[in-house]
Design a protein that fits this description.
five-stranded mixed sheet, alpha+beta, binds protoporphyrin IX containing FE
Length: 166
């Protein structure tokens, strides 16, 4: 069964309204806060959060998923790093990242993190294996393609910061 991961399966269940209204006590989009308050969050999800006035309550499957994550490995993604090249052709803009994963069993990908009318930002995510094993860390080539008519400025967010690509 797929191990739930904070950025992929848990954080998207918390709406911007949830995060905003709960800011007085904890940041529902911050891994460390959600881990620190996990038991309390489960309690309130089962009682009265999020309130009906903002679309609550959650379906039972969401609460079960949150519990499975909180009572399991509380897995999260890591920010990766690599060498980037961006090529423009008639059919696509291709962003390519090459590098080596930190240990055997890792996977990685570029994910669109945010976009505006003038900019788009991808994040380079690395997902560790459920259990670190023996073996040689693998080299990777990750590619993301998008329309050549998209002329917005491209940024990549990785473990060293947010960098504009030429
Ligand atoms: C999934 C979404 C949400 C979760 C997991 C959640 C969780 C919690 C938790 C754990 C507390 C107790 C905090 C503490 O004692 O420091 C709390 C309190 C509170 N929450 Fe939320 N909340 C959510 C969404 C919301 C939203 C959308 C609103 C407002 C529209 C809201 C309003 C409040 C208020 C006013 C309190 C303090 C009063 C009380 O404890 O009942 N929450 N919530």
């Amino acid at each position: 069964m797929r191990t739930p991961v904070f950025e992929l399966h848990i954080k998207p269940m918390f709406s911007a309204t949830d995060r905003d209204h709960m800011g007085f006590s904890l940041n529902l989009w911050a891994y460390d806060d959600v881990v620190a308050h996990a038991d309390h969050i489960i309690e309130r999800l089962e009682e009265d959060m999020p309130p009906t006035s903002t679309g609550g309550p959650w379906p039972q499957e969401w609460i079960d998923l949150f519990r499975r994550w909180a009572e399991g490995a509380r897995k999260r993604l890591e920010l990766g790093t690599g060498q980037y090249t961006v090529t423009h052709s008639a059919s696509a803009i291709t962003v390519k990242v090459i590098g080596t994963f930190p240990a055997a069993g890792y996977t990685g990908w570029l994910q669109l993190e945010s976009e505006t009318d003038t900019a788009k930002t991808y994040v380079l995510y690395f997902e560790p294996p459920d259990a670190l094993g023996e073996g040689t860390p693998e080299e990777f080539t990750i590619k993301e393609r998008y329309s050549p008519s998209d002329s917005r400025t491209l940024f990549i967010h990785d473990s060293t910061g947010v960098h504009q690509q030429q």
